[in-house]
Design a protein that fits this description.
Elements: H1 10-32, H2 38-44, H3 51-65, H4 67-77, H5 79-96, H6 103-131, H7 134-162, H8 168-189, E1 196-197, E2 203-204, H9 211-223, H10 225-255, H11 260-284, H12 290-314, H13 318-344, H14 351-378, H15 382-394, H16 396-407
Antiparallel strand pairs: 1-2
Helix pairs in contact: 1-6, 1-7, 1-8, 3-6, 3-10, 3-14, 4-5, 4-6, 4-14, 5-6, 5-8, 6-7, 6-14, 7-11, 7-13, 10-13, 10-14, 10-15, 10-16, 11-13, 12-13, 12-15, 14-15
């Protein structure tokens, strides 16, 4: 088992990792399983089809809404009670969907469900970094990425199959029951990391919450150019993938006339490629430093987005677009967890607050970027989607270059 920096039993460490993975998977499944049914949802609730990408973007915005508060509170109150609160909020908001009768209530509940994603980013990610040493923490983050990617990989297909037997309301009810099971697992297995002296002698002391001090600490993060560059790069790197998740139902089902099952099958090449990238990350960590690994990942990342741009210019069918996204996705899978680790330790402050700020910046970039791509015709023309997605993803390169240049002179993160 991975080397832990706090004193917990092997079984508890395994249970903790499994519970965190299950909670993250559920927060994504709540979005991806319902995507094949979104046209049915807007029809049943007598709403416009523009609510299809809007509901997805509201989910992302929900992930940002409370992170600014969740992170600092977890630094004071502890990671464990905050994550239990987040899991309960997620489960209840999924259950209430069963009785909703308007698109406004549905969108509000999507916002609340997205807040569960905020708890994952601002609480569980720092907890993993505090429990495990650097190399194992990066591997676990990559593994979490693989597990989360099972949702967009299998979620649309699984959702399509389940919708043959149950309604979209019953899907959410099932997610609520699963969240209850995960809550029990977290209650039993999750250790507390705040207020603990680790085996390396570092004390993870609680940080008292203060509105004035919290504002000052956030402003200090925004003033740190390296940290800001890394956070913006994280959001822009994931933007093409996020835009695809939000707009694929319109492009594949409404525009091309594919079935829900065919829609689910077209997700497999893209998200399988991200998993391949994560597996390559795990192997390359043995022989390369994290900055070197990110540099290698930029090759498939950039080539895939350039190919996507070419598809937009020459006009094409869906197959070359999927192939270009898959190549880009390999680079994304190789670099995402590594860049997150470097961003988290780019500044010396409590990791709950730092992680919250990373999440707020990156998810805001993804949410706004996805909305702009949709507004630019990304949901009605494959060429427009390819063009704006490629442009948005490549915008990360100057930020990433500035961050990695600064990393050459910055002190290494703690082990």
């Amino acid at each position: 088992m991975q080397r832990t920096l706090i004193r917990i039993h092997r079984r508890q460490a395994i249970g903790f990792c499994l519970a965190i993975m299950a909670f993250e998977l559920l927060t994504y499944m709540a979005s991806d399983m319902i995507m094949p049914a979104m046209l049915t949802v807007v029809t049943e609730l007598d709403a416009d089809v523009r609510h299809v990408p809007n509901a997805f973007n509201l989910y992302l915005i929900g992930g940002v809404c409370l992170q600014w508060l969740i992170g600092p509170l977890s630094d004071q109150c502890g990671r464990r009670p905050m994550l239990l609160l987040g899991c309960a909020l997620f489960g209840i908001s999924c259950a209430v969907v069963f009785i909703t009768d308007s698109i406004e209530m549905f969108n509000l509940l999507r916002l609340l469900q997205g807040m569960g994603l905020g708890f994952v980013v601002a609480v569980s990610y720092p907890a993993l970094q505090e429990v495990f040493c650097e190399a194992d923490a990066v591997r676990l983050m990559a593994l979490l990425g693989n597990v989360a990617l099972l949702s967009p990989l299998l979620g649309p297909l699984l959702g399509s199959l389940l919708l043959e037997w149950v309604s979209w309301r019953e899907l959410f009810l099932g997610l609520a029951v699963a969240a209850g099971v995960v809550w029990v697992g977290l209650f039993i297995c999750m250790p507390e990391t705040v207020g603990i002296v680790r085996r390396d002698g570092q004390a993870l002391r609680p940080v008292a919450f203060s509105w004035r001090q919290t504002r000052q600490r956030y402003l200090a993060l925004l003033a740190n150019r390296r940290f800001l560059a890394a956070s913006l790069a994280l959001g822009l790197m994931s933007l093409p993938l996020i835009a695809w998740i939000g707009l694929a139902p319109l492009l594949l089902i409404q525009l091309l006339g594919l079935t829900s099952v065919e829609y689910g099958l077209w997700q497999i090449p893209i998200f399988s490629a991200v998993i391949v990238g994560n597996l390559m990350l795990d192997r390359l960590l043995l022989t390369h430093s994290i900055p070197e690994l990110i540099g290698l990942a930029l090759w498939p990342f950039s080539l895939g987005l350039l190919a996507l741009g070419v598809c937009a210019v020459i006009g094409t069918t869906i197959t070359p677009v999927i192939a270009s996204l898959a190549l880009y996705a390999i680079g994304l899978g190789m670099s995402n967890a590594a860049l997150y680790r470097m961003a988290l330790f780019a500044i010396d402050d409590s990791k709950g607050l730092v992680s919250a700020m990373i999440g707020m910046i990156s998810i805001t970039v993804m949410g706004i970027g996805g909305s702009l791509i949709a507004a630019g015709g990304g949901g009605s023309h494959i060429e427009f989607f390819a063009l704006w997605s490629a442009f948005g993803g490549l915008l990360c390169l100057p930020f990433l270059y500035g961050f990695l240049q600064g990393a050459k002179t910055a002190p290494p993160p703690p082990q």
